[in-house]
Amino acid sequence: MRVVATAAVLAFGLDQLSKYIVIHAMDLVHFHSIEVFPPLLNFRYGENTGINFGLFDGGEQAGRWVLIGLSLVICAGLSIWARRLPKHFGLLLSVGLVIGGALGNVFDRVIYGYVLDFLNMSCCGFHNPFVFNVADVFIFAGAAGLILFEGRVKKAG
Fold it and tell me: What contacts 150, CB < 8 A, 6 or more positions away?
């Protein structure tokens, strides 16, 4: 479980540090847009009250607390599941990334009432209107790792 806890703490910390630097220290909250490496990488300020890409964005306080509760239940479930897993580094790392990313977004919802998003990526003539954050990257990478490594663990066993 040490791998899970370390990955979760690092993912949470990097998410919150990136949000502090970009949104507060670089003052994205006031500029609303900073071109970093256009069109591939730009910072765009976003307040997400829904889930990824603003889905289920109703702006309701009840929805906020439902999403916080759901995230915490998922984190608890993953923690319990991880204790029963074989000691596979990639799988445990993936669980930690999902938990750390989810807790980073939960922290935002509790403190601000929404998730702070700032990353925007477009490419090859496609303009992406959506923004996301480092926690979302960790959640996605962790989920991909769970899919990838779960199959390998079953084959090895």
Answer: 91
Q: Name the residue among 54, 66, 135, 147 with its Cα closest to residue 102.
A: 135
Per the CB < 8 A criterion, the answer to whether 72 and 8 are in contact is no
pLDDT band at 59 (very low <50, low <70, confident <90, very high): low
Residues serving a catalytic function are 117, 136
- If pLDDT is split at 50, 70 and 90, which confidence band does 148 have? very high
DSSP state of 56: T
Residue 110 CA to residue 87 CA, distance in Å, equals 33
Q: CA nearest 49: which of 62, 58, 40?
A: 58
As a whole number of angstroms, the distance between CA 147 and CA 94 comes to 9
Q: Are 114 and 56 in contact (CB under 8 A)?
A: no
- Asked whether the beta carbons of 118 and 19 are under 8 A apart, the reply is yes
Give the pLDDT confidence of 1-27 residue by residue, as tens digits. Answer: 899 999 999 999 999 999 999 999 999
Cβ proximity of 34 and 119 under 8 Å: no
pTM comes to: 0.89
